[in-house]
């Protein structure tokens, strides 16, 4: 087997030889700059040529720099030589380290999701990093960097095939990459519009107006200067959101929902729908006019990395219209558990009072939430619990019954006075925190008991259907695994999305 082939036979294989240089190029640049700074600065300032600026001190600096550079290069080579990976016996194993050796392994049937990450320098060399999340891995998500892009895609297909139960590990040829069908493309114009109309922009405008008024009233311009750090920080946040949301594409395949995005650094995620624990659909106030929503999810194994690596990894849809929201929800929850999902989910997104059958906060407690009491509510379908909240910032949270891990009732002094309570559902860590706000006490207690029974029954039925299998593909009903037609080209999807934008002005 050659280096280009994937480790499907149990042999140990090394990553690409350029991997340590792609990871450590900053250290090499820093060494060269530190030891050669004086000579280069003198030359650039016109204080003689490079040869004229070489003296005894410079020679020693260059010699020292050369030694440090050689040591760094040697460590890179050793790092590459002792980094190996293996796919065998239902595990993926990665060995690293020269002086301090480390071996990490993960069960394939515990793989939650797999990403293909390409930083800018890796893209230039045609390399990619494989990063896959494993159940209960915490902060220790496994990484394999770097491989050639085609090799990384092939290895991901093999791991997903075995994790999903499509391949059992006895095959002697590589598992082909599953076909896909592109179902959504986010036009850059809509992404830019969503950033302009975001919550950050709203508070920037308010802060700017307040600073100008205070400066005029106090005849001092110091308050305006306070905005500069905030503007720089928000500018960085805007760029990060644009950089990660650019060219966002969603596709469906037998191995999960495939998400691709990124301008400079690109990422290709594969999220198995059976591993999604909770879903949150949100609509900021300024998005309401254009009918835009965003979707975030909790994925087992992703929660611990949510804060450190940004929210983009838990973003199922950065900005989309209602039909796109309904389509993405159908991928996550193929069986909505109701005969009229359109009416139910529409009521969850923008309904009031008992629209769609939701049970809301009793009128007696309107003082606790004057604007939101008619929105706060819940509805249980046969497959999921829907939690609705927010009058200005609208939210709809969906938790499949089998994903409810535990629950808690919260009731403070004021809530007890008005006869209401909050019900908190616990799932895996992530951006979605399911919470029923200010339900009548008797309804909250009743839902507590009913949801516990629903969760037990859903897990029982799931285990009976799977035979207690850990393979996530077995967790999906047949409706979630359609026979895929020939996928449309990305250009066709982009054209359709652009035409939709033009039709809406």
What labels would you give this structure?
seven-stranded antiparallel β-sheet, single chain, disordered N terminus, alpha+beta, 13 helices
Question: Describe it for me?
Answer:
This protein is of the alpha+beta class and about 500 residues long. The N and C termini lie far apart (about 55 Å). The longest helix is centred in the N-terminal third of the chain and has 26 residues, at about 20-45. The chain contains 13 helices and 21 strands. Helix 6 packs antiparallel against helix 7. It has helices at about 20-45, 55-80, 120-125, 150-165, 190-195, 200-220, 220-245, 305-310, 320-330, 340-350, 415-420, 440-465, 490-505; strands spanning about 15, 85-90, 90-95, 100-105, 110-120, 125-135, 140-150, 180-185, 250-255, 255-260, 265-270, 275-285, 295-300, 315-320, 360, 375-380, 385-390, 395-400, 405-410, 420-425, 435-440. The model is unreliable at about 1-10 and about 470-495 (pLDDT under 50). It has three domains: about 15-175, no CATH class; about 185-245; about 270-480, no CATH class.
